[in-house]
Write a structure and sequence with these properties.
Quinone Oxidoreductase, Chain A, domain 1, Rossmann fold, alpha/beta, about 25% helix, single chain, 2 domains
Length: about 325
């Protein structure tokens, strides 16, 4: 099969289109013919091997353990393992291939990929493969980090990005009033995604406004918690996702981990910071939630551009350019 192969860490030029063996399918796995795979920042991090800590966290010390990049996709079931009961050949599915740590390759930049059954969900018929492929990784991050219960007044910093765009829509589906913070060029996109109010960060600092929010969902992390606290209600919650602008905003070795660890320590003394939890919600349950949102129109992914598989390096360059108005996918 054709696949994008990464033999080493480095620039995007390390990615090469090659013919490789089909993946072996375990008893609890499904072989999927990939119709579209999502391009997002975590893919870039593993290709470049930055921050360096990801290499010792499971990606591979000197080179990636899994040679084919990509983490989420949509496609058609080609074959199933002996223990699979929920899917059969011909079913249209979508999902994330990883389990556990996110900073590693998952094999989706290829014509076929083997995926655990519980990581997959049926793709709604009125959602395209390109749209469905963009949902799993960003959607699971959002669901894992949203607090339970009513959300109330929500501010999403980075409201038109991969995670931010889904966060706006999921918050709206849960009855929230959403304010989106974005660049001038993407304010209309944030509004179309459902934001009730928008703030142009090139003209106004959201941390110095008079409004107060029940939740500040901070994807870029371009303001310290001390500043974000100014716009939180006393019982409000601050959540940092911590996109580090492709290495420009985080530590070269540890990335955003020091900041995350500091916030975890501060959560013992600040009620506006979520306490560290144990395991994330079961993947199967979260995929059910995302599927229902797609089926009911609560989620409508916006795809900016689809690249052929062989142009995966160009797709990642387009992503890092920051001009995309919606999501990016590669199509085998």
């Amino acid at each position: 099969m054709r696949a994008i192969v990464q033999e080493a860490y480095g620039s995007l030029d390390v990615l090469k289109l090659r013919d490789i063996d089909m993946p072996a399918v375990k008893d609890d796995e499904v072989l999927v013919r990939v119709r579209a795979a999502s391009v997002h920042p975590d893919v870039w991090h593993v290709v470049t091997g930055r921050p360096y800590v990801l290499r010792v966290m499971g990606s591979g010390l000197r080179r990636p353990k899994v040679r084919v990049p990509g983490t989420d996709m949509a496609g058609v079931v080609e074959a199933v393992g002996a223990g699979v009961t929920r899917f059969r050949p011909g079913d249209e599915v979508f999902g994330e291939t990883l389990h556990g740590m996110q900073w590693k390759n998952g094999g989706t930049f290829a014509e076929y990929v083997a995926v655990r059954e519980d990581n997959l969900a049926p793709k709604p018929g009125d959602v395209s493969f390109e749209q469905a492929a963009t949902v799993p990784t960003a959607g699971l991050i959002t669901l894992m980090n949203f607090p339970p219960g009513p959300l109330g007044e929500v501010l999403v910093n980075g409201a038109a990005g991969g995670v931010g765009g889904l966060a706006v829509q999921i918050a709206k589906a849960r009855g929230a009033t959403v304010t989106g913070v974005e660049h001038t060029s993407k304010l209309d996109l944030a509004t179309s995604l459902g934001a009730d109010h928008v703030i142009d960060y090139t003209k106004e600092d959201f941390t110095r406004r008079g409004e107060r929010y029940d939740l500040v969902f901070d994807i870029p992390g371009n303001h310290p918690f001390a500043e974000c606290r100014r716009v939180l209600k006393p019982e409000g919650t601050y959540v940092l996702i911590g996109h580090d602008h492709y290495g420009a905003g985080g530590h070269q070795v540890l990335g955003s981990l020091p900041r995350m660890i500091k916030l975890m320590a501060q959560s013992m003394f600040h009620r506006q910071l979520p306490k560290p939890t144990g395991s994330p919600p079961p993947r199967k349950e979260s995929m059910v939630v995302l599927t229902e949102l797609l089926e009911t129109g609560g989620l409508t992914p916006v795809v900016d551009r689809a690249f052929p598989l062989e142009e995966a390096p160009a797709a990642l360059r387009y992503l890092t350019g920051g001009t995309a108005r919606g999501r990016i996918v590669v199509v085998p």
